[in-house]
Amino acid sequence: MSRISLYVMVAVFLIAGLSLTLYRHIELQVPWTPGETRQVWHVEGLVSFEAHGDPVKVSLALPDNPGGFRLLSEHTASPGYGLHYVDTEVGRRAEWTIRQATGRQQIYYSVQFLVDDGSQTRAATPALPDTVVWEHPLGTSAQQVIDAARERSADAFSFTRELARRFTDEPAGDENIRLLMSRFDTPELLVRLLHQAGIAARLEHGLILEDGRRRQVLEPWVGVFDGDQRLLLNPRTGKTGQPDNLLLWEAGGSPVLEVQGGTESRITYSMLRRDEPAAVAAQTDLEAGGVMGFSIHSLPLEEQALFKNILLIPIGALVVVILRVLVGIKTSGTFMPVLIALAFMQTTLLTGLIAFLLIVSTGLMIRSYLSHLNLLLVARVSAVIITVILIISAYSLLAYRLGFNEGLVITFFPMIILSWTIERMSILWEEEGAREVFIQGGGSLLTAVLAFLAMDHPVVQHLTFNFLGLQLILMALILLLGNYSGYRLLELRRFSPLGHSRD
Description:
By secondary structure, this protein is an alpha+beta fold. The chain is 48% helix and 21% strand. Strands 3-6-1-12 form a 4-stranded antiparallel sheet. Strands 4-5-2-11 form a 4-stranded antiparallel sheet, with no helix packed on it. The chain has a 4-stranded antiparallel sheet with strand order 9-8-7-10. Strand 8 (219-226) and strand 9 (229-233) form a beta hairpin. The mean pLDDT is 82.
C-alpha cells in the first residue's frame, strides 16, 4: 500500500508541475530559454483640440487586445483632467473631463502591445439596419451594383470580394459606381451596399505600424460578418485579410474620437518598435493581467535575486540524489556539496576549489592539534568554527595584500558547514584512515562541481525561476529515486571476478 501511495503522490506532483509549467508557457507566454526576444510596439496617441472656456468632455476609443497583439500597459498624460475608463457594448473608451478649459489642449495616451500571433479579435456580429435610405437616383444605382456583384458570387464573403473589386478595378467604367462614389466615401459606401444586400458589416479603424513613424492617422477598414466568421476588407485596395502590421484600434463601429466643448479636434499617432527579452515582455504581461500578486516577480528585486538562488537548490539536491543513490559516490555530509556549489556560484569554480582546499586542509591540521586536548564535542566544534573564521579572514587579508582580488570572495563559503566538514573528516581520519577521508572528500568535491555545473547553466536558472511548477517535477523525480533499491553503479565492480572466472 505504501508503494501505491508513493506512485499516486508522484503522479500528482508530475501532473501538477507539468500543468503549471505548460500554463505559464502557453497562456502567459513565458519563454523556455532566456535568449528569446519578443516584438513590442509602443504607440502614443496625441489628442488636440481648441477649447473656448466651456466644460470639456473627450471620449476616445481604446484598443482591447486586437487580433495579433496583446495589450501590456497603458498610460495617459492629461494635467488638470479627470480620467475614467468606460466599458461599452462595442469596446473600451477613455473619458477625460474638465470644468473649464481655454486655448489649445493636448492629451496624450500611450500604450504598449506585445506581438502575439495567437491573439484573436473579439468582435460581436453587428445588427443589420431595418432599411438603408438612399436618395432617389442613388437607390437604383446601388441595387444595380448589388445585382451585378451577386451574379458573380456564391456567399457573403465572395460577394464582398466581387463588390470591392468593382470599386478598385472598374470605378471609371461603371456609371453607377461613379455616381455613388461622388456622394459617399468608399468605406462608408461599401458598408451601405453590404447592408442593402443583407450582409452584416461595419466600419473599423486600424493603424498601420511602421517603426519610427510620427503623426499617423487611423485608416478605415470594413469588417464583414457571416455567422461566426469574420472577414476584414481594405476598401482602398480591395484585398481581404488582416496584415501583420495592422493594429485594429477601434473594431466596434463607434466613433474613434468625440469632443464636447471643443473644436478642431484630431488625433495623431506615433509609434516605435522594440525587441525586448521575452522574459521581460512576459513579466510586463503578467503585471498587466493581474497575475503578479501570485508570482515571485511581484517581490522587490532584492528578494527576487535571493529566490533565484534558493530555487536552484532542488537542482543540486537532485544531482546529489542521483550520484549517491544510483552511482554510489560517498560524500562528507549529505547535502554539504549543494551548499559548496552555491558558494562556487559566487566565487567561480577555480577560485572556489582552491579556497575550499586551503580552508579544509588548514582546518584539519589545526583540528588534529585540538584532538589532543580531549575537549567536549560542543567546545571542540565551537573552536573549529572560530578557527574557520580566522582562516577565512587571514586568507582574505593575504589575498588582498598580494593583489589577488579573487581571494576576497572566499567569505561566501558557509562557515558552519565547513566547520562540521572539518570535524567529520577529522573523526573519519582517526577511525577509518586517510584513504576514506580522501574518498569522501573527493566525492564531495566531485558532487559539488557537478551540482555547480547544473545550477550555473543559464537555461536551468531561467527555468527554475520562471516556472515554479518545475519544483513539483523535481520533487516527483526525487521521490522516485528514493524508492530505488537496486545496485549502485560503483557496486557493480564486485561482480568483475565473475566475468574473469568465465574466461
